[in-house]
Amino acid sequence: MWPNSRLTDLLGIEHPIIQAPMAGATTPAMAAAVSNGGGLGSHGCAMHTPDQFRADTRQIMDATNRAINVNFFVHEPPGHDDTKNAQAQALLEPYYEEFNLGSVPKAEPVHFPFDDAMLEAVLETRPRVVSFHFGLPSAAIVETIKENGIKVLSSATTVREAVDLENRGCDAVIAQGWEAGGHRGTYLSQATGAQVGTFSLVPQIVDALEVPVIAAGGIADGRGIAAAFALGASGVQIGTAFLNCPESSTSDTHKTALLSARDEDTRITTAFSGNPARGLINRYIEEMAPHQNELPDFPLMNTLGGPLRKHGAATGNRDFIALWSGQSASMNKVLPAGELLQLLVDDAQRHLNT
Ligand SMILES: Cc1cc2nc3c(=O)[nH]c(=O)nc-3n(C[C@H](O)[C@H](O)[C@H](O)COP(=O)(O)O)c2cc1C
Fold first, then answer.
1. What is the Cα–Cα distance from 58 to 127, expressed in whole angstroms?
2. Are 165 and 154 in contact (CB under 8 A)?
3. Among 142, 143, 150, 158, fewest CB within 10 Å belongs to which?
């Protein structure tokens, strides 16, 4: 049994463990395996078209009839700053020359925030849970989703963001600590601000909110899950630990890098997308570090660096791909997602009952 059942009751799940949605790394097979194991399987759909989203969601729903979570970004569309765009292109040019990749692409977004077309697809497929990153969509959209019986979650990296999310209708809030891998959900403070660690963030958010709080960031085993409950959380969201599952669609280069990662090997960088995200240090992160605050708005760097990342992925060159990782990657295990979930459940139970 779990110390409190607020999240499991809210979402209709057996175990208060959410496998994090990770755009580019989660798959229908992973989400279904976790949901079938009694956790909340999630799929990162921020880079999907509505039709890709429909196809993937149907695939998950064919494999499980339990609750699932689908996730989208709700960032502001980028501004047009020709000077910044030109500066960023100039910074990337030497890499394009080094690998004979032609010219740096134009700064045009290739991924778009959650919109009406995606809302229609969500209402058609009706997952039990929809989660957002970088805030929430408009009040009208949140209301429509909730009226259709779907629970809404989003990530906060500060108490201020958590209160804002609760006031705008979130059914539960994910407290995303500084340790977390991938993009920070930060949307009210400065891009590289909000550096509050999970241990500090969770109890402060718990004290400020009425809705259940989900702890995220650096949680990798039963000790972390038990600690999250001790801090007042009603559940956890775990990302990095699931990246080495065979169901994860991230590259073998990324998976291999994670398995030799140490606690001190990650950094926050804006160099890949324009928004801060935590990944394993590589040449690109190091060389772009002095320019972090001069880059075009999210997600334009994704476009500018697209061919460079593709080349890195195709050639297995870890220096130019985003090796997203939280601070606890060294605890990763290579296990099918359902087995990993069960291990986390058993380990947490052992620590909670001692
Ligand atoms: C590879 C990767 C991709 C991620 N993509 C998303 C995403 O698309 N949407 C989202 O809400 N969170 C995303 N996150 C953040 C997770 O939701 C979560 O906050 C984080 O994984 C928790 O920290 P941990 O990685 O230490 O477990 C991503 C994390 C990783 C590691």
1. 10
2. yes
3. 143
224 CB less than 6 Å from ligand 1?
no
Cβ of 328 less than 6 Å from ligand 1? yes
Which of 22, 178, 275 should be mutated for ligand 1, with most atoms under 8 A from CB?
22
Atom of ligand 1 nearest to the CA of 238: 27
231 and 163 fall within a common domain: yes
Do 172 and 204 share a domain, yes or no?
Answer: yes
Q: Quick one: 40 and 159 in the same domain?
A: yes
What integer pLDDT is reported at residue 93 of this predicted model? 97
Residue 167 is predicted with a pLDDT of 98
Q: How high is the pLDDT of residue 112?
A: 85
**Dist. CA 311–CA 274, nearest whole Å:** 20
**How far, in Å, is the centroid of ligand 1 from the Cα of 278?**
9
pTM of the entire structure?
Answer: 0.98
Are the CB atoms for 107 and 88 separated by under 8 Å?
A: yes
Distance from the alpha carbon of residue 183 to the mean position of ligand 1, in angstroms: 6
Six-digit token string for 110? 């290739």
Enclosing domain of residue 83: 78-110+248-330
Cα separation values, 260 from 213, 254, 255, 265, 320, Å = 32, 10, 9, 10, 18
Query: How much is the pLDDT for 345?
Result: 98
127 Cβ closer than 6 Å to some ligand 1 atom: no
Pocket test for ligand 1, best of 183, 199, 333 (most atoms within 8 A of CB): 183
214 and 340 both lie in a single domain:
yes
Residues 191 and 175 in one domain: yes
Atom of ligand 1 nearest to the CA of 220: 27
User: Is 305 found in the same domain as 285?
Assistant: yes
Do residues 222 and 127 share a domain? yes
Are 190 and 128 members of one domain?
yes
Distance 290 CA to ligand 1 centre (A): 25
Decide if 218 contacts 224 (C-beta within 8 A).
yes
If you measure from the C-alpha of residue 18 to the centroid of ligand 1, how many angstroms do you get, rounded to a whole number? 11
Question: With a cut of 50, which residues of the chain have pLDDT below it?
Answer: none
